[in-house]
Amino acid sequence: MAVYTYTTLDDPLGINSTLALGIDGSGLIVGQYIDNNGEHGFVDSSGIYTTLNDPLATSGTGASGINATGQIVGSFADNKGTHGFLQSGGTYTTLDDPNFSVFTTAQGINGSGQIVGVYQDIFGTYHGFEDSSGTWSVIDDPSGFYTYAEGIADNGQIVGYYLDNDKIHDHGFLYSHGVYTTLDDPDAQPGATFAIAINNAGQIAGYYSDHNGATHGFVYSNGIYTTIDDPLGANGTLATGINNAGQVVGYVLDGNGHNHGFLATLGPNPSPPAGTTADMILRGANNSPPAGLYEIYDIGSNAILAGYSLGQAGTDWGFVTLGGFFGSDTTDMLLRNSNTGAFEVYDISNNNITNAALLGTVGLNWQVMGFGNFSSLGETDMMLRNMNTGGVEVYDISNNQIIKSAFRHGGLELAGRRLRQFQQPWRIRHDPAQYDHRRLGGLRHQQQPDHQCRLHGNGRIELADRRRR
User: Fold this and answer.
1) Which of 60, 153, 229, 432 could be bridged to 38 by S-S, CB 3.0 to 4.6 A?
2) CB 357 within 8 A of CB 437
3) Rounded to an integer, what distance in angstroms lies between the CA atom of residue 192 and that of residue 307?
4) CA-to-CA distance for 246 and 265, rounded, in angstroms?
5) CA quadruple 78, 84, 87, 93: dihedral, nearest 10
C-alpha cells in the first residue's frame, strides 16, 4: 500500500478549525479557518499564513482553489447570499453564475484561469458550472439530480460529484471531452463517493464513507483507489486537493471534534520486513487496469509478507530480465521497447526503484538470446542474435552502461545507426562513443503517442500510487 507522511496544518488564528482545501505545484496551500468573528480564507506558504477576506464579505470568506500563477478562487457571504470570487494579484472579482442563480461558489481553477464551481437556480436545483474567461457553461451529469463541479485540470478535465435521482446516493464523476464517467471507490458504501480535485496527471483526490459510516480520503490513479487516512483523524479524513507532484491536502476531524488541515506526501516503499528471503516482481497485463504496473512482493516462509508498487510503464515496454547490471543494488530490472528496440535498466533496492538508465536502442531484428557473466568480470552481460544474418553480439554491462561488446558476422544497430560490418571473426570493440548508453537521471518518461500510461521520454518510469493491500 502507499506510504504517506502527514503534516498537520493549523492556522495560528484559527480556533479549533482549519481546513486545507487546495494546493498548487509550488506547495502553496489555501483553505479556511474559523475564529470568534467567523470564517476566513488563508494562504499557507511554508508555514507562513496570510488571511484572505473578500472586501464585500459580511459573513465569512473561504478559499478553495489555487493555480500555478497564484490565482485563488473561493466564496464569500454577504447580506444577499453566497457568491464566488477570483482573487488575482490582490484584486477580488465577484463570480455569480448568470443562469438565474441565487447561490454561487467557486471551487477550482486551472492554469488557464478556467474556473469550476456550483450554483443554485431559482428552483432550488444545484448545478455545476465552468467559467472560461467570462463564458459560463453548465456542468450537469446526466445521471444526477444535482451536480457539483469541484476541480479542473489544465486539459479541461473536470471532477465533482452528483446526487442521483433517488436523492440519496452520491457518486463521483470525471467529465472529459463531453463524456461523464462515474467514480465509486470500491471500499465505499453504495452512493458515498465524492471526487473533489484533479491534477494534470489525471490523479483524482476525494473522500468516501465506508460501510461503517467512517469517512476516508482517497487518491484515484490509473484505475487504483488508494485510501488516505491521517492518523490524527479519529473521526474522519477528507482529501480535497492534489497538485502535480501528487501532494494531497485536506482536513480531519479529531477525537475532540476539532478540524485540522493536513498535507500528505507520498514517501518511498518500506524496506522488506524481517524474514524476507526472496522477492517476486509482477507486471499488470495490457488489458488490465492499470496496464503496465510493476509490483514487488517480499516473500518468506512460503508466504507473501508485503507488497508494493514499483512503477508503471507503457504497454510497449516489456519485461526482459532481472540481473546485476549496476553492481551495488540487490537486483536490477531490464525492459525493452517493442516499437523502438530501446533497452532500459532500473536499479532496485529495498523495494524501490533508485535509478534508471538507457542502455541503447538496438534494431528489432536483434533478439535476446540470454544473459550471463560472459566476460568473467562478475557483472551480468547480454547476448543478442540477428534473426536475419545469424550474427551474435555480446554486451558487457557495468554501472548501467555498455562498456564494450564482441560480435561475429553481424552488424549492430545502436541508437538507430548502423555501425559497421566486420568480415573477420571475433573482434573486441571498446569505444564508448559508438554507443548511446548515457546515464539519465530521474525516473520519468516523456509521453509517447502509443503509451497508454504516464510515461516520459526514453523509457523513464513514473512512480505510481500503490495498490491497497
Assistant:
1) 60
2) yes
3) 28
4) 7
5) -80
Query: Does the pLDDT of residue 179 top 60, yes or no?
Result: yes
Please compute the mean of the pLDDT values over residues 208-229 and round it to a whole number: 93
* Count of positions (residues) in the chain: 469
| Model confidence, pTM | 0.71
| Radius of gyration of the chain measured on its C-alpha atoms | 27
Q: Are 8 and 31 in contact (CB under 8 A)?
A: no
Residue 200 predicted with pLDDT over 50: yes
pLDDT reported for residue 313: 84
- Domain edges within the chain: 4-266, 278-461
Per-residue pLDDT tens digits for 213-222: 999 999 998 7
The CA angle 27-30-32, to the nearest 5 degrees, is 150
* pLDDT higher than threshold 90 for residue 437: no
Where does residue 246 rank: exposed (0-12), middle (13-18), buried (19+ CB within 10 A)? buried
> Using CA atoms, how far apart are residues 389 and 336, in angstroms rounded to an integer?
21
**Interatomic CA distance for residues 121 and 99, integer angstroms:** 7
Confidence of residue 2 (pLDDT cuts 50, 70, 90): low
Cβ contact 275:305 at 8 Å: yes
The correct CATH number of 4-266 out of 2.120.10.30, 1.20.120.80, 3.30.750.24, 3.30.70.260 is 2.120.10.30
E strands, 258-313, are 259-266, 278-283, 293-300, 303-312
The DSSP element (H or E) to which 211 belongs, if any, is none
Q: Burial, 330: exposed, middle or buried (Cβ in 10 Å; 0-12, 13-18, 19+)?
A: middle
In whole angstroms, give the CA distance from residue 131 to residue 2.
35
Contact 348/354 with Cβ under 8 angstroms?
A: yes
CA distances to 67, 141, 282, 343, 379 from 158, rounded to whole Å, are: 15, 11, 33, 37, 50
Q: 383 in the Ramachandran plot: left (φ > 0), alpha (ψ -120 to 50) or beta?
A: beta
